[in-house]
């Protein structure tokens, strides 16, 4: 555990919990999300400078509503309750919570009492983001109301002597105009944080901790070439050098040249001192996928085969002491850390622990957000193209070819995708689009080339902007760029007669085609 100034975010199931943690870290203060039912002893042991109760969908009075240990409010540690968290403080302190006369949702005019430490130096009238049906209807004893809206007379309340603060609105979302200032006021004026947490201190601390843990042990890492596993591998190699072995399984569904690019960075003549093993296993994967059309079956087979390949390699490597995984914080949260619903279940290397002979798993990035992982990667000298690599699904191009897979189709989609990526980079759009790729639709259509009639495949281009990959919009790529890409693909990639651009949002479509 990292021992330093920290804020705890208690998860009551709100949809913005990650955002709260982010906002805290943006103030250079380390922050962890913990389940709402974390024991009081555990909390004391963590020695937080402050605790934030998140929002959540429940109503405090209802059966099964998440309620934390009420003694947390007596520890003398500053608490800020947001939305449900605010109502919970009112409930635990014997105030009242009732259904509001009219539900408030969206941007709402609010008035602040700027004598409050929380609203110090703010404009007294502003806009906040509300999303609630219930609200505090009666102040608990000793508390004062410090903000109100037309429909919510107690939009904020506090008991400064006990360091208890509550806001009905959401300061963490950008729609609350002075939200950043309110959170900073809480962190610096109420909790008296110093804001000294930095990426470089994370690097040094992690290297030290890993060294102490691993000692002379042998470490194994499955490297996919993606940002997370690359950064995890480099961090380990900085800590234990040649005691680390990295295995990179090339399943034959990577993008054009990608396998060689990964090898160039991590291999024998690369940038780091580690044992790098590239396993070229495409025949095995292609064989097993012959004639398979169903997307989920493809995913399952690839997952299983990956494990089998890894099993074979690890037999050769023998017993290792530690297995490294590139798990990052959103993965930890999505796998059901607190009360928030489990949303996604895409796992690339989920079954590895069952076939590798090891003592313990090391997950050095499990408390970092994606952009923090990138910062750390850059700091350790990982090339920018790897650090900013767009996300790529574990099953790779296999789920970007609709229906059955052949080597010819792989060649087509690789070449088309390469052209698309090249033109996006040339147009300087690569950092603004979160994910973009070519997919093979498996639809053939009539075309003409010279005097000849053709009957070839249609390629679909997909480019999306998204902040969380749960929802996405089609990227607004300039028409000239799409036109150039389409022209180049039909001219340079044999077997393609048509290029389509996918304008669908997610939902209802997904980002990938399968
Ligand atoms: P969808 O297609 O569900 O994708 O909108 C959301 C994000 O998840 C990635 N994705 C996967 N990643 N294994 C992975 O590692 C998978 O099977 C998989 N399927 C989708 C997708 O690329 C996007 O970033």
Walk me through the structure:
This protein has helices spanning 17-26, 40-46, 84-92, 179-190, 199-214, 227-240, 258-266, 282-289, 295-317, 329-334, 352-355, 370-379, 384-387, 407-426, 479-492; strands spanning 6-11, 30-35, 50-53, 79-82, 96-112, 125-138, 144-148, 156-159, 164-167, 219-222, 244-250, 275-280, 322-324, 360-362, 435-449, 452-465, 473-474, 496-501. The chain is 32% helix and 24% strand. It has 514 residues and is an alpha/beta fold. The model is unreliable at 336-349 (pLDDT under 50). The protein binds xanthosine-5'-monophosphate. Xanthosine-5'-monophosphate (XMP) binds at residues 299, 346, 348, 391, 393-395, 435, 469, 506, 510-512. Residues 299, 346, 348, 391, 393-395, 435, 469, 506, 510-512 line the site of xanthosine-5'-monophosphate.
Please specify the SSE layout and strand pairing.
Blueprint: E1 6-11, H1 17-26, E2 30-35, H2 40-46, E3 50-53, E4 79-82, H3 84-92, E5 96-112, E6 125-138, E7 144-148, E8 156-159, E9 164-167, H4 179-190, H5 199-214, E10 219-222, H6 227-240, E11 244-250, H7 258-266, E12 275-280, H8 282-289, H9 295-317, E13 322-324, H10 329-334, H11 352-355, E14 360-362, H12 370-379, H13 384-387, H14 407-426, E15 435-449, E16 452-465, E17 473-474, H15 479-492, E18 496-501
Parallel strand pairs: 1-2, 1-3, 3-4, 4-9, 10-11, 10-13, 11-12, 13-14, 16-18
Antiparallel strand pairs: 5-6, 5-7, 7-8, 8-9, 15-16, 16-17
Helix pairs in contact: 5-6, 5-12, 6-12, 8-9, 14-15
Bound molecules: xanthosine-5'-monophosphate.
């Amino acid at each position: 555990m990292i021992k330093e100034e920290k804020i705890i975010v208690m998860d009551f199931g709100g949809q913005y919990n990650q955002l709260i943690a982010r906002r805290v870290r943006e103030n250079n203060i380390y922050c962890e999300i913990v389940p709402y039912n974390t024991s009081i002893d555990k909390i004391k042991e963590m020695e937080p400078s402050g605790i934030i109760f998140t929002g959540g969908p429940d109503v405090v009075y209802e059966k099964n509503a998440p309620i934390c240990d009420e003694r947390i409010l007596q520890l003398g540690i500053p608490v800020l309750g947001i939305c449900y968290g605010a109502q919970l403080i009112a409930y635990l302190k014997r105030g009242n919570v009732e259904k509001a006369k009219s539900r408030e949702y969206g941007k709402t005019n609010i008035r602040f009492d700027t004598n409050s430490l929380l609203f110090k130096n703010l404009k007294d009238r502003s806009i906040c983001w509300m999303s609630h049906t219930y609200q505090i209807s009666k102040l608990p004893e000793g508390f004062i109301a410090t903000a109100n809206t037309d429909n919510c007379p107690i939009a904020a309340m506090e008991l400064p002597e006990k360091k208890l603060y509550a806001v009905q609105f959401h300061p963490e979302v950008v729609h609350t105009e002075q939200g950043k200032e309110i959170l900073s006021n809480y962190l610096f004026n109420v909790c008296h944080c110093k804001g000294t947490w930095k990426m470089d201190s994370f690097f040094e601390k992690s290297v030290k901790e890993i060294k102490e843990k691993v000692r002379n042990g042998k470490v194994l890492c499955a490297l996919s070439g993606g940002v997370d596993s690359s950064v995890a591998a480099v961090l380990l190699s900085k800590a234990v050098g040649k005691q680390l072995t990295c295995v990179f399984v090339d399943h034959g569904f990577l993008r054009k040249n990608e396998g060689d690019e990964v090898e160039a960075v991590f291999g024998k003549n690369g940038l780091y001192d580690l044992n790098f093993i590239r396993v070229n296993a495409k025949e095995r994967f292609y064989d097993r996928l012959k004639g398979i059309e169903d997307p989920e079956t493809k995913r399952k087979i690839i997952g299983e085969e990956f494990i089998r390949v890894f099993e074979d390699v690890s037999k050769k490597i023998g017993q290792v002491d530690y297995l490294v995984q590139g798990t990052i914080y959103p993965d930890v949260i999505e796998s059901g850390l607190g009360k928030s619903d489990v949303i996604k279940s895409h796992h690339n290397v989920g079954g590895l622990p069952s076939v590798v002979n090891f003592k313990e798993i090391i997950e050095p990035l499990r408390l970092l957000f994606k952009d923090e992982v990138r910062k750390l990667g850059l700091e350790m000298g990982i090339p920018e193209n790897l650090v900013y690599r767009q996300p790529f699904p574990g099953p790779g191009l296999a789920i970007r070819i609709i229906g059955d897979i052949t080597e010819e189709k792989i060649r087509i989609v690789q070449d088309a995708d390469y052209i698309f990526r090249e033109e996006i980079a040339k147009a300087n759009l690569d950092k603004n689009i979160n994910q973009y790729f070519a997919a093979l639709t498996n639809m053939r259509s009539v075309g003409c080339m010279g005097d000849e009639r053709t009957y070839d495949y249609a390629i679909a281009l997909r480019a999306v902007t998204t902040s969380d990959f749960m929802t996405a919009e089609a990227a607004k790529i300039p028409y000239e760029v799409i036109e150039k890409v389409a022209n180049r693909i039909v001219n340079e990639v044999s077997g393609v007669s048509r290029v389509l651009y996918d304008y669908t949002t997610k939902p209802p479509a997904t980002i990938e085609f399968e």
